[in-house]
Amino acid sequence: MNTLNFKIVMVGLTLLPSLQTFAEGYPFILPDNMNATINVITAEQERYNNKLLGTNIFGFSNNTEQALINRYQPVTIRFPHGLWANWYDWETDGTRVFGTDSFQWIAADGKTKTKTIDHLAQIKLKDESKSKIGIDGLAVLNSDKVNSQGKGYDMLWTFNMSADGSNFNNGSPVTVARYNDLVSRGFEVKDIELGNENFYPGQRSSIIPNAKEYIKRAKSMSTALKNIDPTIKVSIPLLRRENSANPNWNEDLSADKSYFDAVTIHTYVGSDPDDPASAEGAYATALTARHHLAKSIDDYAGKVAPNKPIWLSEWGVKSGGPNAVSVLGMADAYIFMSENQDRYERANWFSVNGKLNSFLVWETYISPSGVERPRIKYPLQKTAVGAMYEIIRDVLEDSTLLESEMQSPDLMTGVDAISARAVVKDGKTILMVLNLTNKSVPFNVKLNNTDYNGSFNHQAMSFSWMGAEKILPIDSNPLEMVKQGTGTITLPKFSVSHIYLEDADIATNTFSVAMTKPVNNSVFDINQVVTLQAQVNDSDNDIQQVNFRVNGTFYKQANNAPYIVEWTPTKVGSYTFDAVAVKNNNTRKTSAIKTIKVNASKSYVHISKANSTGFALDGGNGGANNQNVKLWTSGTARINQQWEEMSRGADYYSYKKRGTLFCLDAGNGGAKNQNLVLMSCDHQNQNQHFKKISLGGTKFQLVKRNASGFAVDGGTGGVNGQNVKLWTTQTAADGNQIWHFLSID
C-alpha cells in the first residue's frame, strides 16, 4: 500500500454548519492518476464465517412481523435485543423493572451516586400493557425452519443479569430454568451474552449496582450453564471507549478470564447513538470505518482480553444518514472482518427494522391518541444500507474466501482507497470491490501473479457524491450493469462493484488448514495454558491427523476433530505456531503461522509502611489519572493495596494498581512534598520507575529513577488519607522511607 497524505479537515459539528457543507470537499488527498490491482492467490482458501452477517431484527408475533422475518431469513437472530434484554422476564415474555426504579452505586471517585434506570417510562408502559417480546412466535418460526431446512436459526441469546442471576450463591437456578425452557421450545442454546451494556449504570439495576455484583452473578451463571453443556460459550460486555462512570469496568470484569469465552462489543462508527452530537459523524470517519472499528477493539477489550474472540452484537456505520460513505464504510468493515476471522467470531448489524442504521425506509403516522409515531413504511422499500447488505450477503454467505494482495493508494495507514475481497461461490469466482474515492479508477485483476484477460460481468451500485442516498423497491436489484466482456475494468466513483470472472476456473476442493487458536499476536504469561486449535476443510473427508508445531518443531498431534491440543510455556519470549494437516494418502497442507508473546508471570505485592505497619500504599477506588496515592489501613486482601510489580531492568520497577491500567507515578522531576498519583501506565515513562534498594529482609527503599535524590516517603506516623509524597532521599534510619514488601497471589 502506498501511503498518502491525509488532508487535515476539522469535522466537528461546531465548525461545520452541515454535512452538506463538508461534502463540497473530498476529505483525502489522492493521486492525479489512480489505479489499483488485486492479485488473487487461489491456493490460499478459507471458508467464510456466516455468523459475521448477523443482524438485529425485531418482531416475531403477528403475520406481518413473521413475513418480514421469512423475507430476510436472518443468518443469526439475537434475542432479546438491546437494552430491553436487561428488563426481560422470560417467564412472562414481558418487560418489567427488576429491583427498584433508582438505586445507589459507587462511582470511580468513590462517591455514592443515585441513578434512575434508563427508559424507565417505556419499561413501565410495556409492563402495564402486558406487551410480549415474541418468544412464542419466534419458536414457531424456528420450528418452521427446522421442518423446511433441517436446522433452526443460529441464535445469540442475551440473558438478564438481574433476573437470571438470582440465587447465584446456589447455582443460579433461574439461569438453568431459562436454558431448559429454551431447549424445550426447540431452540439451540450455544452462545449467550451475559447482559447488555451493563457498563452503563442506567442499564444495570439495584440488584447489580456495580461491577462486583455483576461479576458474582456472571461467574455463577457461566458455571451453571457449562455444567449443563460444556460447549456453551458465554460473553461479557466490555467498553469500546472511555467511560467516566466506570473507567475500570473492562479491567475488573476481565481480571479473571476463566469464566467467559468471548467479549461483546457494541461499536457505532460515526454518528453515535450514545452521543448524537458527536463530531465523529463526518464523511472521513465513515470512509475509514475499518480503522475506527479496529481501534474500538484494540484500544480497549484488546488490551485486557487479547485472547478472547469478539462478538460485535451491535454495530453500525453512519455519517448523517444512509448515504454513500456510510454504506461504503460498512462494506469495508465487512471485508475487514472477513480478513480477521480468527478474531471476529460474530457480528450483528443494528438493524434490519429497529431504526438507527435501518435496512428499511420508515415513515411517521398519527396514532389514535393523536401522537406522531414512527413505523416501517409499506409497501416495503430499502435504504442504501439495506441494498448494500444485500450485495455483501449475496457475495460472502456460504463462500470460500481467496487470499489476495492489493495494490492501492491509502486513505490513511491501513485503509486502502480501493478495497476488495475475492471469493468462490457456487463455482463462480467473484470480486467485491469498493471504490472509496471521488474518482473513477482503472482496476487490474491478477490470478497468481498472472494478468486475467478473460471475460467478466461487471455490475455496480454507485453514488454521485458522498452524501447521496438511495431508496429502492424492496425486490429491486441494487446493482446496475457497467460492462460485460473483456478489456479494461473501471470502477465508478463511490461504488461497490460485483465482478464475476467468467473464465476463471478455481477449484474449491478445499483441503486447507487454519490455526483458529491462539489469536495472532496475543499475549500469555509463563505457565498459562495455551490452546492450539486447527480448523481443517477437506471435501474428501480424508484427514488422518493434524500435527501442531511450536517454533517449527513438532509438538503434538490430534487425530480427531475438533483438532485441539494444549501447550504450556515455561520461558519468556515470542513463539510461533502452525498446523500441518495430513491426509490418509500423506498429502499435507500447512497453515499460516500464528505468533504469541509470553511474558513473565505477574507478581503482585502489598507495600506497607515499615514504621507504621498498620498502614499501606493505597491507590483508592478504581483508577484515574492524577488520583492521589495515600496511606490507608493495611489489608492484603484489599485490591486497592495490591500492586503488580513490573521489572524495568537494573533493579528498577513500576507498580500497576491491580485490575487497572494505572501505575504509581511520582510526577516530573523531583521536589519535596511532590504527591504520588496514579497515571496511565507507560513502560518508557521514568516518572513511574523506582529503584528498589534492599534494606534487609522484606524491607526496601523506593528511589525515583530520573530524580535519584528523592524517594517515596510516607510521612510521619500513619493515618487514613495521609498523602504519599517524594522527599529527599534519607538514610535507612529514616523509617518514613522504608517499605515492607509482601508477595501476594
Architecture blueprint of SSEs:
Blueprint: H1 19-22, E1 36-47, E2 54-56, H2 63-72, E3 76-79, E4 88-89, E5 94-95, E6 102-106, E7 112-116, H3 120-129, H4 135-149, E8 154-159, H5 161-164, H6 173-184, E9 191-194, H7 211-228, E10 233-237, H8 249-254, E11 262-270, H9 283-287, H10 289-304, E12 310-318, H11 324-339, E13 344-350, E14 362-366, E15 372-376, E16 381-383, H12 384-396, E17 400-407, E18 410-412, E19 415-416, E20 418-425, E21 428-435, E22 441-447, E23 450-451, E24 456-462, E25 471-473, E26 480-485, E27 489-491, E28 495-501, E29 512-517, E30 522-525, E31 530-537, E32 543-550, E33 553-558, E34 563-567, E35 573-583, E36 588-590, E37 594-599, E38 604-609, E39 612-618, E40 627-628, E41 630-633, E42 643-649, E43 652-657, E44 662-665, E45 677-680, E46 690-694, E47 699-704, E48 710-713, E49 725-728, E50 739-744
Parallel strand pairs: 1-22, 2-13, 3-8, 8-9, 9-10, 10-11, 11-12, 12-13, 30-37
Antiparallel strand pairs: 1-17, 4-5, 6-7, 14-15, 16-25, 17-20, 18-19, 20-21, 21-28, 22-23, 22-27, 24-26, 24-28, 29-31, 31-34, 32-33, 32-35, 35-36, 35-37, 38-39, 38-42, 38-50, 39-41, 40-45, 42-43, 43-46, 44-45, 46-47, 47-50, 48-49
Helix pairs in contact: 6-7, 10-11, 11-12
Would you count the extended β strands for me? 50
Low-confidence stretches: 1-24, 272-281
Distance between the termini: 47 Å
CATH class of the largest domain: Alpha Beta
The structural class is alpha+beta
Backbone CA Rg = 28 Å
CATH topology of the largest domain: TIM Barrel
Mean pLDDT: 91
Largest sheet: 10 strands, mixed
Q: Counting H and I runs of at least 4 residues, what is the number of helices?
A: 12
Proportion of beta-strand residues: 35-45%
* CATH superfamily membership of the largest domain: Glycosidases
Task: Tell me which CATH architecture of the largest domain applies here.
Answer: Alpha-Beta Barrel
General shape? globular
